[in-house]
Amino acid sequence: MEGFFTQARKQLHLHMLAGLIRVNERGVPNFADGSSVLSSSIAREMLLLLKGKAGTGPLTAQTAGLVFEDLCLSFLRDCFVKITHLRPGKWVFSRNLSIAGFEQYKHLLELEHLAALHPELATALGGNYIIKPDIVIFREPEEDDEINREAPIVDGESAGRTVLRKVNGGGSILHASVSCKWTLRSDRSQNSRTEALNLIRNRKGHLPHIVAVTAEPMPSRIASIALGTGDMDCVYHFALRELKEAIERIGSEDSSELIRTMIEGNRLKDISDLPLDLAV
Fold first, then answer.
1. Hey, which of 32, 71, 161, 235 would disulfide with 39, CB 3.0 to 4.6 Å?
2. How many domains in the chain?
3. Number of neighbouring beta carbons within 10 Å of residue 13
4. Are 91 and 80 a contacting pair, CB within 8 Å?
5. Measured on CA atoms in the order 226, 228, 229, 232, is the torsion positive or negative?
6. Could you give the angle at which helices 4-19 and 61-81 cross, rounded to 10 degrees?
7. What is the pLDDT of residues 224-264, one digit of tens each?
8. Is 115 within a domain?
């Protein structure tokens, strides 16, 4: 019997083919770099392996990016709903919310206020630390009645500062930041790393998951954010199996080796892995 994640993955690809993927007059999909023979070749093979017909009509790069974000959010939300028995809680999926609205980063608003009053402090702190990730997943604090549902767990004598108790006055808890990159160029990969470092350095409390999802066909460009440790948890591809097979079909040994290195090193996974990884 086919699992829900497999079905959801197929639906994601169908939605991408219908509303996102386009081909130019040379048959090159719009997630490829048309000026690169290797990128174009891989993307063409991937399109064949996806077993669908791309949509028609123009689509700007900006629009493509926004549609990709919407589709990724819907996929993650639909899949996560199916595994709430593994990660119970009140979960919310949203786009482009400031991290300053979450418990671990709410102190950044005060820093921003102080920096506005004291320019010399702004110079010392640097800027752009209040970011808006493409997708955020967060958990709402729990009422004591829910915490004590099975047995008395908390009362007025203990656990007076934990953010998970709503009675303590805490805000929403950022669980994950998902950077969606329809394609990757050097500036875009650097942007993902900068956001990740901001999340790491400026938090007070639990560090959220920090991941990226992409449709980029070029292994070398994927490696620009996937390789190395310390900032990104992992990079996820919307069609990793098809990407790997497409590279094997065109016979690019260097690209095959690089993809294998990232996969075996747990730096690159398929998007179907992400919902369960977020449940950790």
1. 32
2. 1
3. 20
4. yes
5. negative
6. 160
7. 999 987 789 999 999 999 999 999 999 999 999 999 999 99
8. yes
